């Protein structure tokens, strides 16, 4: 069986891949059916749809907002039953199709419609995709576009004209109706927008937080927040509905300007920002008291005999592991057909959604409930820096997205793959003779293969990792870093966070990340149960009158095969674990501390969230709650585990300039449990065994190794390079 164990996590540019790894090679058939669309396929889909007169499509970045545009194109994965028929039974290859999202804004009843387009690589048909419940997608639920942001900027620039003097006098900056640089020399103001955009379905009203446009502008709010109604397809009808300035509300920019002119406004005067060593910058400042060097390179990862993994296109192999992967524009990394020693463990493991719920005293802060799939979480996968974001030895893979663009956009080095020394042995033992010597020492160095990408969703950077260990364990983990979402400090705001700088409040928030784990353990007929661990107090059978207190299993566990429609569980008072197994397996307890839901697999429940949830959270198009109302048996069925991990973040001064990764990571483990006869890492040829040949003298040792000696330093001597364009 395989165990899902959930634990709070505490505490190709410049590199030529070895002959075993080639991200540009054609993957084997078992992986190619899951491969992301190539640039040629993306262009073919766009060309085909643009040629259909009945769709009336226009380019995305030009012309009015009220038009029909192609917003998103990405792979439409094959249905699971068709994929398994092909992979396991030699059935026909599933039809390769694209998912296309079109905004129909140029008609009397605007809406959003999704289409399946195929067959690829030469599409000849398109047909609507049905969302569960056959619901239509309201136009107001659509994600924001670059064009809508440009129009918001123009609207705000016009609205801020009466406030020019107030902003100039109090901040030294003002709102320009033109281009600006984040270096701050032009003294521009910019804005960050928050969501949800309103208080009810059908609204599109957004609070905008004005900030000085300097490096790290997220940490430079000026005390002004503006509510703009931009629901109408005609931006000439957009309007500022309300303003908040330094703790007070105003009905219009004119009212706020008049209060300033009359001298009755409580003005927040901000100090002039320095243009070097700004507190929001990465420029070094200060000194460590020990004087140990930081101006030389630290430890590096190297591969003495080359790569021990193999990459062919989107097909990855490492030790006993093999899998296919893709980086979907809508939500991020997705693993398919995850196998260990040829046995399928999971059909799919994927990121679904990342949510951050904030509290605050300002209107923007109290309204902020970010749902990052609605911000193109999978499409903001910018270049990974060699030697920083990933080791120098990593293999880098490009991604191509067609998301709010008039063609595919190449994101260089969006994914990296590398073997990582864990710094702790996978297992080891020193067998002492308790007389100053030993019988033997044995150890196996700890390593894992890491598949990584990042999502920079405006201020926050998420580092997404899947780690594969030699003993059949898979770990999914996400680190949160980047800039905190900050608002203007007022004394009333202290209840909702920490004062992290003179005029900056770091707002407390909760991060929640949702994963899909479609387990297929030795087939699709799986079952699920809980195993509790408690303590018993019993009479000692070998010492009458004495008592024994000891742990025992299965106290309060949920009986296997109970006919319930959902398993949504909160942390119990005693340790607990989740077991997903095939028929006839033994089970044993391991501590568990996480929330999880288990449902039967349904083709019309591919994801737990959608790109529309952010702007239509009140009546979401994809309601995860509806997945749990089926009242279906989950005994000997095709099961999907939906895993939620997260942490509370109370910002503090040490989050300046950025939140650090230590202590800000969460994840879960997928572990074999009585699936093998022994630890499968015994197949590794990397252990060391040391036995004394002449105890008790211990002058001669027998050292057994199955790997060659290291040739020494192997770090590439070339200088750091980085491009950053996409």
Reconstruct the topology from this structure.
Blueprint: E1 2-7, E2 21-22, H1 29-32, H2 39-50, E3 68-76, H3 80-89, E4 97-104, E5 111-118, E6 125-128, E7 137-138, H4 146-159, H5 164-171, E8 189-193, E9 205-212, E10 221-229, E11 239-245, E12 248-250, H6 253-262, E13 309-312, E14 315-318, E15 321-328, E16 332-340, E17 343-358, H7 363-367, E18 369-371, E19 395-403, E20 409-421, E21 427-432, E22 438-444, E23 447-457, E24 460-468, E25 474-482, E26 486-488, E27 497-501, E28 504-507, E29 509-519, E30 526-539, E31 547-553, E32 576-582, E33 595-600, H8 624-627, E34 639-649, E35 665-672, E36 687-692, E37 701-705
Parallel strand pairs: 2-13
Antiparallel strand pairs: 1-32, 1-35, 3-4, 3-19, 4-5, 5-6, 5-7, 8-9, 9-10, 10-11, 11-12, 13-14, 14-15, 15-16, 16-17, 17-18, 17-29, 19-20, 20-23, 21-22, 22-36, 23-24, 24-25, 25-35, 26-28, 27-28, 29-34, 30-31, 30-32, 33-34, 36-37
Keywords: Copper, Metal-binding, Oxidoreductase, Signal, TPQ
GO molecular function, one term: quinone binding
Active site: 372, 460
Describe this structure in words.
By secondary structure, the chain is mainly beta. Among the domains are: 29-129, Nuclear Transport Factor 2, Chain: A, CATH 3.10.450.40; 146-262, Nuclear Transport Factor 2, Chain: A (Roll), CATH 3.10.450; 316-407 and 480-537 and 551-664, Copper amine oxidase, catalytic domain (Beta-galactosidase, Chain A, domain 5, Distorted Sandwich). The protein contains eight helices and 37 strands. The strands form five sheets. It has a 15-stranded antiparallel β-sheet that branches. Strands 2, 13, 14, 15, 16, 17, 18, 29, 33 and 34 form a ten-stranded mixed β-sheet that branches. The chain is globular and about 95 Å long. The model is unreliable at 4-19, 555-574 and 583-594 (pLDDT under 50).
């Amino acid at each position: 069986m395989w165990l899902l164990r959930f634990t709070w996590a505490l505490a190709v540019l410049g590199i030529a891949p070895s002959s075993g790894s080639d991200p540009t090679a054609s993957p084997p058939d078992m992986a190619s059916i899951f491969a992301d669309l190539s640039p040629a396929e993306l262009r073919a889909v766009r060309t085909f749809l643009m040629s259909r007169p009945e769709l009336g499509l226009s380019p995305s970045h030009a012309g009015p907002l009220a038009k029909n545009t192609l917003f998103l194109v990405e792979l439409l994965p094959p249905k699971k039953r068709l994929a398994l028929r092909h992979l396991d039974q030699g059935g026909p290859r599933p039809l390769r199709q694209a998912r296309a999202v079109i905004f129909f804004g140029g008609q009397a009843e605007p809406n959003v419609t999704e289409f399946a387009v195929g067959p690829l690589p030469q599409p000849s048909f398109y047909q609507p995709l049905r969302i569960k419940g056959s619901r239509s997608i309201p136009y107001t639920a659509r994600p924001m576009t670059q064009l809508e942001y440009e129009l918001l900027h123009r609207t705000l620039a016009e609205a801020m004209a009466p406030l020019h003097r107030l902003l100039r006098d109090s901040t030294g900056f003002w709102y320009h109706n033109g281009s600006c640089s984040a270096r701050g020399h032009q003294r521009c103001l910019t804005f960050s927008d928050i969501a949800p955009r309103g208080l009810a379905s059908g609204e599109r009203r957004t609070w905008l937080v004005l900030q000085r446009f300097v490096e790290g502008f997220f940490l430079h709010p000026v005390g002004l927040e503006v509510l703009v109604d931009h629901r109408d397809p005609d931006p000439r009808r957009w309007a500022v509905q309300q303003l908040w300035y330094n703790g007070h509300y105003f009905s219009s920019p004119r009212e706020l300007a008049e209060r300033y002119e009359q001298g009755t406004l409580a003005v927040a005067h901000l100090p002039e920002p320095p243009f070097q060593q700004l507190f929001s910058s990465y420029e070094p400042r200060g000194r460590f008291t020990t004087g140990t060097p930081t101006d030389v390179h630290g430890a590096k990862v190297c591969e003495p005999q080359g790569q021990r993994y193999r990459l062919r296109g989107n097909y990855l192999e490492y030790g006993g592991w093999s899998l296919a992967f893709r980086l979907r524009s809508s939500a991020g990394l997705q693993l398919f057909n995850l196998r260990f020693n040829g046995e399928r463990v999971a059909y799919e493991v994927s990121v679904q959604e990342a949510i951050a719920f904030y509290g605050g005293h300002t209107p923007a802060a109290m309204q902020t409930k970010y749902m990052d799939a609605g911000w193109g979480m999978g499409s903001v996968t910018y270049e990974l820096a060699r030697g920083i974001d990933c080791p120098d030895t990593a293999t880098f893979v490009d991604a191509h997205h067609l998301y709010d663009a008039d063609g595919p956009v190449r994101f260089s080095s969006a994914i990296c793959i590398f073997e990582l020394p864990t710094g702790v042995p996978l297992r080891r033992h020193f067998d002492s003779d308790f007389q100053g010597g030993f019988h033997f020492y044995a150890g196996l160095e700890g390593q894992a293969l890491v598949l990584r990408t990042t999502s920079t969703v405006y201020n926050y950077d998420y580092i997404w990792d899947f780690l594969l260990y030699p003993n059949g364990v898979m770990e999914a983990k996400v680190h949160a870093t980047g800039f905190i979402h900050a608002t203007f400090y007022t004394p009333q705001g202290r209840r909702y966070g920490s004062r992290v700088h003179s005029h900056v409040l770091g707002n407390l928030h909760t991060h929640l990340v949702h994963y899909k784990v479609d387990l297929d353990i030795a087939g699709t007929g799986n079952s699920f149960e809980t195993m509790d661990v408690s303590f018993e107090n019993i009479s000692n059978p070998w010492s009458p009158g004495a008592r024994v207190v000891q742990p025992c299993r299965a106290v309060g566990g949920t009986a296997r095969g109970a006919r319930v429609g959902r398993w949504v569980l909160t942390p119990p008072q005693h340790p607990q674990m989740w077991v997903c197994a095939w028929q006839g397996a033994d089970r044993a307890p391991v501590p568990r501390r996480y929330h999880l839901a288990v449902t039967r697999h349904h083709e019309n429940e591919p994801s737990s969230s959608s790109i529309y949830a952010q702007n239509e959270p009140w009546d979401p198009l994809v309601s995860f709650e509806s997945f749990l109302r089926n009242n279906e048996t989950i005994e000997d069925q095709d099961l999907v585990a939906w895993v939620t991990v997260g942490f509370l973040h109370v910002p503090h001064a040490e989050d300046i300039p950025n939140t650090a990764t230590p202590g800000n990571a969460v994840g879960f483990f997928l572990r074999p449990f009585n699936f093998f006869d022994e630890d499968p890492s015994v197949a590794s040829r990397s252990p060391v065994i040391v036995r004394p040949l002449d105890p008790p003298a211990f002058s001669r040792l027998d050292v057994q190794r199955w790997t060659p000696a290291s040739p020494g330093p192997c770090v590439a001597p070339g200088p750091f390079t980085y491009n950053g364009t996409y």
